Fold each of these.
Amino acid sequence: MKTTELFVSAPGRLALACSALLLAGSLPAQTGSPYLDAQQPIDARVADLLGRLSLEEKVSLVHADANFSVAGVPRLGIPQLWMDDGPMGVRAETGENFANANRSDDFATAMPATLGLAATFDTNLARAYGAVIGQEARQRGKNIMLGPSLNIQRTPLGGRSFEYMGEDPYLTSRMAVGYILGEQAQGVGSCAKHFAMNNQENQRNSINVLADERTVREIYLPAFRAAVQEAGVLSVMGAYNKFRGDYCCENDYLLNQVLKGDWGFKGLVMSDWGGVHTTEGAALHGMDMEMGSRAPYNNNRLADPFLNAIKSNQIPVSVLDDKVRRHLYVMFKLNLIHDPDVPLQTNAATSQLSTKEHQETARQIAEASIVLLKNEKDLLPLDAAKLKTIAIIGANANAKFANDGGSAQIKAPYEITPLAGISNRVGSGVKIVYAQGYALPTGRGGGFRRGGAAPAAPAPANDELASNAVEIAKSADVVIFVGGLTHGTGDSEGGDRRDLKLPGGQDELLQKLVAVNPKTVVVFNGGAAVEMGPWLAKTPALLFAWYGGLESGNALAHVLFGDVTPSGKLPCTFPKRLEDTPAAALNAYPQTSTNQAAGGGRGGRGGFGGSNDEEYKEGLLVGYRWYDTKNIEPLFPFGFGLSYTKFKYSDLTVVRGLNTEHPTVKVSFTIANTGKREGAEVAQIYVRETKPTVQRPVKELKAFAKVNLKPGEKQTVTLTLGQSAFAFYDPDKKAWISNKGDFDIEVGASSRDIQVHRGVSLAQQVAVPD
Ligand code: BGC
């Protein structure tokens, strides 16, 4: 018997020495076989290879063989398929039951939270972000990275908001496309997750989401559609929750009809970890690969039970063949199956682990993600030369976040805290005094449970910690308070926040700090909005810094001291209070009455009063669409963010294209930097239908451009809006309809700061199928 060494699936893993064993009904791998011929079209290679696989081998390709892998078929040169989380870097290796594998070679660059990436409104940075992860994934031997996470922030309570890209489908789509193109260009597949309507963590394994068709198509699906149709994402992960009665991993409508049917997705659908519940549901309703179910893996629903169902003719083999075809298609796309005798042409990606370059990219993205929310009397940027003592206060100033928060955790080679970053920046000429100020609850965080877990109860204000902080604040030239949320206080997979309050008595402490030192700069971390107390009116400067990855402290220092002009914009609305948020206002999420009665409820993880239905009562009115349509004033609106310089918008022209069947509108305007510093502005283009024939949000983001300008410089921005910028989804026609009639094109610095606008009318109604 001839033994051939066929491939190495991943560096550091065993090379597979395999026997070229002839199985009944299947052909062995041979140099010259059509599937090994890289000149053949992929579909032909897939068809040829499929014909060589035995039934058992095919089944082995549609379920896991370990935490993050699927077995290969060595005799045919099909390698094991390796995956990893995602989406903010390459997660450390796991051992039995996902425990830390305690290796020393499994670190990676911790990128800023993907919500922070969205706050940059910069698609080039999204590409750079994906490229870093793709390169490190190559180095770590991963074929598919489990990200980006594309669920819409329906409520700021959502525990995974930090991993998503905000409340707007257009912004999420643009960032997703950039990220995926950047990552897949490195020869690594992306996995768009969690498909779909996984917008809360509480009861995520049991809720049944009910949302109308327009809401689904217009709010929750566009980013996935863009990932498939514009970025060519190679895999999609089904979500844990149910949608309209069926688990998303066994959902014919989502997987077969929309994803594979309407959108023509050719890649593979994998389950979320443990998200498959039945053999028949998964097999027949579009699930291609069962992941995360418990060992022994041959008992998984898409393993022996599936094989038996095929053998007993309950499920046709064509169902299995389609899944295997998709798996092989992805493998050929990633160049994982190749002729062992022909030297591999790689795309020569520089696959290196957390290089200086990668860390630099992480820092640049973190800098661009920071949002300046308030800056009275130009307190910022600070001038280190004029300061003698800085009081740095707050638990987060001395905290690290990367290796926490659930499956998005990253074991970084280092992480610069704000305290370290500011100290490095100011050098020895300035005295830094630090006080923690408040205590944070310990509890949920790195040790999240897959099924959901409650965050620890908030710690009460701690008088001693607070008075120490007030003492040092009194005599400092400036106070830099770094607080907000942590993964342990609710920004984490597995559970949602109970409310939008700042944990640990920070409101009380801030009230005291601003009273003793009016030069108090407040910096918050977090994955979504927090409510802010009366101290806000007395604070001259406020910044939101998300979770900034391994370079977060340096990035923050660069913004505070003016090495970088802030340019981030909010990718999600900051409401004044939880009751203003759409789902809460409609008592849809959290259901406040149930919370109180059961001491839990959806907001507090209690029972559901008999029903698991989670009705998206707010429909289309998610995020700013709600606040604007209902005239509710937010604390800080979507798209808002200040700069150290000033911008002026002018000269808007709006020109309709001549082809009325393919409507286009060319929008052109000028932005000038009228301030004294170089800086970047994110110009946002919103479209409003003046007299809609169906309910429409008052305005919707349809384009944006980030423009960097020197003082006194100006630039003309020209963008073309296509039919989709004007369209709504018509469920009866199964098409996107742009009406004949008037629209207003609104250009501004945020959703509530429209600087210039102009009308345009479309000459005829146009319908485009989804
Ligand atoms: C998460 C996924 C993740 C998977 C593997 C699940 O609990 O929802 O996002 O990719 O675990 O860790």
Amino acid sequence: MERTDETIERAVEALRRGGLVAFPTETVYGLGADASRPDAVARIFRAKGRPPAHPLIVHLPSAEHSSRWARRVPEAAERLADRFWPGPLTLILEKRDDVPDAVTGGQPTVGLRVPDHPMALALLGAFGGGLAAPSANRFGSVSPTTAEHVRHELGGAVDVILDGGPCAVGVESTILDLSGSTPRLLRPGGVSRAELEAVLGTEVVVGGGHVRAPGTLASHYAPRAEVRAVPPEALEAEGRRARDAGQRVALLSARALAGLEHVCLPDEPEARARRLYAALREVDARGFEVAVVALGAVDEAGLAAAIGDRLRRASAPRPGPEGT
Ligand code: TXA
Ligand code: MG
């Protein structure tokens, strides 16, 4: 085992050469490059196979760095950063003119976040600048929550992979757009809408905007297998139906049921979020064609909203290669 400070040093050297470093955060693993260098950022898109016009989040060592990237840091952003950074919240702000288009997909805004993981903070602190980093997976596939997931999917394309163990939250950050007249929640995540509203003292509108955001495509975060989300009371029947139709089916559930195969996905929201992406990967690794998962109706609050969002996307009809 290398000493951590030596590994961080190697990672910083790679970043200074314009290389790619995969690093752990509390949400999912990120694939990082120097956000001030368009050539380095271009390598991220090549490694992921992601279309170039999609904006990336800039990860910062601390909130004080925000003004290097944002033209204006509104008071609301300061209050939210104060309360939730480091943490699973990305703020979309008007960008400064010198932020590379490669980072923002040519948009007038930039996404900023300070991740809450000791290794990410050590890396960012030693680097001393912003790291553009999407989730460290191939475009359209499931986000990685262990270093092993990254090695498996992107190994050869990355200069250094920092291993910080399994991610504590397990689903991507909440994205809040503060660039318009009303705060808009673009993606639910580890910080809930209610928590945001409590700090802001105003309503947060859900969705909207016109921004291309891969995490907001209907079919995203999907394994190879077909995912069927059904009401809890229909779980067992749907599993049997698939099995009787001759399909290799697994239930994504806390417990085995009715002799059906099963991949463990706990019920309790925090454990469920932490395990979600590893469970979807396990479905593929074990060769299942169909995974059936229970999904309650609407009124999901907190982390359950983020889990419901990802499961609905994983189970959405898959577009052709253009839209994945
Ligand atoms: O938890 C996370 O946010 C992880 C870790 C690594 O920090 N990152 C992540 O990155 O999920 P990615 O690229 O997979 O998803 C980032 C999302 C995308 O949906 C992207 O379009 C959106 O953030 N985004 C980034 N900049 C934006 C901007 N200026 N306006 C609107 N959406 C933006
Ligand atoms: Mg992603």
